[in-house]
Design a protein that fits this description.
The structure holds two protein chains of two kinds. By secondary structure, chain A is of the alpha+beta class. Chain A is built from five helices and three strands; from the N terminus they run H-H-E-H-H-E-E-H. Classes of the chains: A alpha+beta, B mainly alpha. The interface between A and B is medium-sized, with 34 and 33 residues.
């Protein structure tokens, strides 16, 4: 049985990764949309995204939509593998 | 324990109930992510169809003998669809996903299938009036959206049901101002639906 991923395990980060996993591979989602889905604050979401980015699980793209600054997020391949491993660990707990 | 204080709780100490709760959260958020992505991709196409219906139906109401409005409306949708597909294909070029060529190919194929289906259907069940043909296409499109919504998310299901019901209702109960009704209620409804789909 694979081990748990301590980075993804945290509740908000788990929800972030699950939301990104539900989207097509590499699809970018706006920070504001993610915040609305997770119903969290800018600061809280930003902190957790930093943690996931430092772990290499997500990529954060900052650009402009016209003249408006925009931050978007997508799961990386490493993040996908880590997430799948963590899900397998959780399922293993139920099956054991 | 509040969600953010769980940073100090290690995953290795999880019990079955915690694992079950975590998996439930994962499932719920995966579905939300999938639905959000589906809504975002569907919205521009639905908006485009709504604009076409609004303009074409209102034109038909006041110029009943204008035979060019629907072919031009179809061409508008086809060209807009190509533009949207091109934009979508380019924006996802960073990922292992279909490129521009595939997106455009799918749009063209969708139009070909739709036109051939309608031509074949009208050959078998020839409509005796514009309202019959218009409501059939509205119900067909609505049913397709509703079926897609069963997989993509409840908002698209709702848009499909709305379209199918208003199309049938228009045929059954709205006679004198049928085209205006289809344009304002149908086309306008689709435009508002597209804006709704873009809101999370």
């Amino acid at each position: 049985m694979t081990g748990p991923d301590e980075v993804i395990h945290q509740s908000t980060r788990l929800k972030i990764m699950a939301t990104l996993r539900g989207m097509p591979p590499g699809e970018l989602v706006e920070f504001t949309r993610l915040k609305a889905i997770l119903q969290t604050t800018d600061g809280n979401l930003g902190t957790h995204l930093n943690t996931l980015e430092n772990a290499g699980y997500i990529e954060v793209v900052k650009d402009y939509a016209g003249k408006k600054p925009r931050t978007r997020v997508a799961m990386t391949g490493k993040g996908r593998a880590a997430f799948e491993g963590h899900v397998a660990y959780l399922k293993g707990i139920l099956e054991s | 324990m509040s969600p953010d204080k769980s940073d100090t709780a290690h995953a290795s100490g999880m019990d079955r109930d915690e694992a079950k709760t975590a998996l439930r959260e994962i499932g719920a958020h995966q579905r939300r992510g999938f639905s959000m992505s589906s809504y975002r991709h569907a919205a521009p196409y639905i908006f485009m169809v709504g604009v076409m219906w609004l303009v074409a139906d209102l034109t038909q109401q006041f110029q009943p003998n204008n035979y060019y409005v629907w072919p031009l409306g179809g061409l508008f949708c086809f060209l807009c669809g190509l533009a949207l597909a091109y934009r979508e294909g380019k924006s996802r070029a960073y990922a292992a996903s279909p490129g521009v060529g595939q997106y455009i190919g799918r749009v063209v194929a969708t139009w070909i299938f739709a036109i051939l289906f309608c031509m074949g259907t009208f050959r078998i069940f020839a409509p005796s009036s514009g309202a019959q043909g218009g409501s059939f296409i509205g119900m067909l499109l609505g049913t397709i959206y509703a079926c897609m919504g069963l997989w993509m998310g409840w908002r698209i299901l709702a848009v499909g049901l709305f379209l199918a019901v208003m199309s049938l209702g228009g045929y059954l109960w709205v006679h004198e101002y049928y085209s205006a009704y289809m344009g304002i209620v149908g086309g306008g409804g689709l435009i508002l639906s597209a804006l709704w789909l873009r809101r999370v």
